[in-house]
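task queued by scheduler; priority normal; single chain, no ligands, no partner chains; default sampling; output format set to structure tokens
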Amino acid sequence: MKLTIALPGLLWPDAGDIPHLARQLDTKNLDKVIKRSQIRQIPYSFSDLVYSTYTTTTGSLATEIAKNLGYAGLYPNFLLAEPTFLRADRHRLLICESEILQLNDNEISIIIDNLNDHFSGILQVFKVNANLWLVGLNLNINNNKFYPILDIIGENIDNYLPSNSIELTKLLNEIQMLLFNLELNRPRKNEGLIQINSLWLWDKQIKFNLINNYSNIFYNGQSLNSAKIKHLPKLLPDAFIDGSLIIFDNLYYPCCYRDHHSYLHNLSIIDNQVMTILLQYLNRFDTLEILIPGIHKTLVITLNKNDRYKFWKNLTFIQLIKGTKCALT
């Protein structure tokens, strides 16, 4: 049996914090799982993995979704969009995941209608789901590098803005001004909800379908919205099916937001619950893989059945986190 576990956020991204975190780590069960493993890197990110579940083809994800919705002939170019909140932090603007806004259907309709009225002839927004929208554009968007929010949560947007289109940059600024002044932000603020102040535009080139290798994809959270991703069973071993991928995002958001306390707390849960169960079932796996996705690449920790009897290896998580540091960003 082959089982794959994805643990985005397992490796802390900031090298300067690692000595402090390492003194507080207690990962005895994780150490036992990985101590005789092989390590390699593969060139895909967390979003490459997740958004492979949205399509069965390769190429532009935005264009593929436009075709599926019957909008492909309406505009020459398409991008995907996520409503977001940009948080000012000194001289930086940090981006948040769209789910944090908790927009209701009425608010989504108001936002989309305002955007379509204001930018008529330039763009049109179509709802895909509550947190993912499609934008048809009469603008040239070629030669730009785009990043889904999923890969850059908590990051300074300056490093990820499109750099080869003045028109697109001006459009993003106009969208921000329009959304900031929306009337619906006032009652949201009074209710203690986060205001919407930006729309993040992106696309992703699906180079190859990463999920073809998996018989099932299970997920322990709520933020990944794809029909091909199943809720994780209450009993973890029920997901131990040959060829399955299990995604745990407990560490991802604390890692993105540099929340030391939550990261250490959730790492303890992963170690004491998930890794304890994996150890109990270890003899059943011919191959156990642990994926640790980053912005540009993924670290793969592989334990093959025969590797368990190689006594010359003794990898620990502290050695792993110190050795890789910021290698995935």
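post-processing summary
- The radius of gyration is 21 Å.
- The CA atoms of residues 40 and 300 lie 5 Å apart.
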